[in-house]
Sequence to fold (311 residues):
Amino acid sequence: MPNFSRVAVLFGGPSGEREVSLESGRNVLQALQAQGIDAVGIDAMPGTLPEQLKASGAEIVFNMLHGRFGEDGVVQGCLEALDLPYTGSGVLASSLAMDKLRTKWLWKGAGLPTPEFRMLDADYSDWNTLVAEIGLPMMIKPIREGSSLGISKVKSLEELPAAIDEARRFDQVVIAERFIQGREVTAGILEGQALPVIRLETSREFYDYTAKYLVDDTRYLIPSGLGEVLESQVQELAIKAFAVVGCQTWGRVDFMVDGDGQPWLIEINTVPGMTSHSLVPMAAKAAGIEFGELVRCILDAARPRDGVREA
Fold:
C-alpha cells in the first residue's frame, strides 16, 4: 500500500442535501480508512472551513459536499486558495454544472440535445404564453439546487403558480422545461469513461428526493434494457456533455430517453451521492469496481489546480 498524506473528507455542510452528504462522506471515510489511508472527516461549514482544514493537518481533500457551498465552486475556490489538491471538478465546471440554466445554454451552444426551456425570473407570470411555448406537462426547477429539491411536474395551467412558488423557495431564478415522456436513465463518468447506464423506475411522478432517498421501491435496472446501440449512444453523449461543461474525474449525467430512442440531457452532478441508494457506486459495481476501489480511484485523481486544466 503506497503511503498517503492525510486526507480530509468534507461532508455535511449547510445545504439542503446535508443529510445525504453526511451519509456519503461517512461511507467514503470508512472506505479510505479500511484501506489503511490516514483520513479524517470534517463537517464543513462556511466561515470555518480554512481553520478546520488547518487543524486537521490534511494535505489532500476528498470532497463529498453535495449542493450549494460544496458543489457550486465555492469550496473548490477555497481549496485552491489554500493550495490543497482535491477530488472532482474545478471551480468553473462546478459552478456551471450547479446552474441548470447555464449548463443548458452551454449544451445548446454545442449542439447537444436538451429539452426546450424558459427562464422564469422573479417577475415572470405569463403562464398562458409559457404553456403555449413549452407545453404540458412541464418540469419546474430552481436553477441551483440538487437532489431534485424544489422540482415539480406540472400537468395543468392551474398548478403552475404553486410549483413556481415551491421552486422559488430554493432560488429566485427558475426554469420551465419541456417534460420528456420516456425512460429515465443515468450514466456515471469515471476518469473519462462512461460506466454502465442505469435505468430508473419509480412509482412516483419522477425520480424525486423521496424516490432517491426515502423509499425502497425504486428500481435500478442494470443492464438498462436500452440495447447495446442506444446504451453506447447515451454513454458517448454523457462523455461529451461532461466535457463541454469542463468537468473532471468523476460525476454523473442524467437523461430522459423518449419513445423514439432519442436521449435528452437533463443535468450533471459533479459530486454524486455515495450512499446505499446512490447510482455511481451501483454502476461501478456493475463494471466490476467495488466501492473501495472506486473511492481510491477518485482519490488518486485528486490534483493541484493551476487554472489551465479546466480550459
Q: What stands out?
A: Residues 307-311 have pLDDT under 50 and may be disordered. The two ends are 34 Å apart (CA to CA). The CA atoms of residues 49 and 55 lie 10 Å apart.
